[in-house]
Design brief:
Radius of gyration: 21 Å
Structural class: alpha/beta
Distance between the termini: 52 Å
Oligomer: single chain
Number of strands: 7
Strand content: 5-15%
Largest sheet: 5 strands, mixed
Shape: globular
């Protein structure tokens, strides 16, 4: 796991669970996690079934069904199969029957229903979710977006997150318009080589409906602060602390430089590793942002 060799780690967890007669709960949790990440759906589903068999109490039963539903919805998204979304909905219904105020199960059921194009039922789940989470929760902000536009729950949305930048600015994914998300590190040679280009991009698009957020994978906070100060990196800066940082894990970042462009609807548009030719992509994002602006102004009135 430390070496990020998920395939080997998954095999070892499967062996350990088998050796324990299918009773290793810690192994089963990892089998579900890596089964979903690696697309080994049967492994994830088997582990969830084993968890159900061993579950004691309402919360454990709910968690087992939730995990099973997570595997089915991930498989459905990968394989574009409505049958998987229907099974995910069934599993989350069972999870909520066991534990009705389980926020993650409520949200996942809303997503499954949205994929099945049952938008009214999906909106009801998203509304239920907003009542279970605090106002500042990024997932709650995402649910509000889904309520306003249920079809967005069927899109390839950027993961919801909220960070506080080095200058104290609170940045939340669902409060932003167009976004260029730039993962980098001071120890990364190609990142340093690309810095003049990123500085020019930040200058060129200043004042536009676009946020450039640089996410550093540096572990040394002082070295990072000195670097961004010395190089006048004045756009929003956040330190995630490494490849195991929360934002890097959300976006599956395993190498830098790594950029993502996200449109004003929150939909992931482009993903590139070591790519510097991003200006054309940003111009497309801005066109879309300006198209949305009149509609949002009208609805606000």
């Amino acid at each position: 796991m430390r070496d990020r060799r998920q395939d080997i780690a998954l095999d070892e967890f499967k062996k350990a669970d088998k050796q324990d007669g299918g009773h290793c709960r810690a192994c089963q949790k990892q089998m579900i996690k890596y089964g979903i990440e690696l697309g080994e759906w049967k492994t994830a589903e088997l582990a969830a079934e084993e968890m159900m068999a061993e579950a004691a109490g309402a919360k454990e039963v709910a968690m087992a069904h939730f995990q099973s539903g997570a595997a089915f919805i991930s498989e459905g998204l990968q394989r574009h199969k409505d049958e998987c979304f229907a099974r995910a909905h069934d599993e989350e219904t069972k999870a909520l029957a066991a534990y009705s105020t389980f926020p993650d199960a409520v949200m996942l059921d809303g997503r499954a229903l949205a994929q099945l194009k049952q938008d009214d039922a999906a909106k009801a789940r998203f509304e239920q979710f907003t009542k279970l989470r605090p106002a500042e929760d990024p997932e709650r902000q995402r649910a509000l977006r889904y309520i306003a536009r249920p079809e967005s729950a069927r899109a390839r949305m950027a993961p919801p997150f909220a960070v506080t930048t080095v200058d104290g600015q609170h940045v939340s994914m669902d409060d932003l318009q167009s976004v260029l998300l730039d993962f980098w590190a001071t120890w990364c040679g190609p990142c340093r080589e690309a810095l003049p280009h990123m500085q020019n991009v930040a200058k060129k698009f200043r004042g536009q409906p676009l946020v450039i957020l640089s996410v550093s994978l540096d572990s040394d906070e002082q070295k990072w602060k000195e670097f961004i100060g010395k190089n006048e990196m004045t756009w929003p800066q956040y330190r995630d602390g490494g490849f195991t940082g929360s934002i890097a894990k959300m976006f599956g970042v395993t190498a830098v430089p790594h950029t993502f462009t996200i449109d004003a609807d929150g939909v992931l548009q482009e993903e590139h590793i070591g790519d510097a030719s991003i200006e054309g992509k940003l111009k497309k994002l801005l066109v879309h942002a300006r198209e949305l602006a009149p509609a949002e102004t009208s609805s606000a009135k």
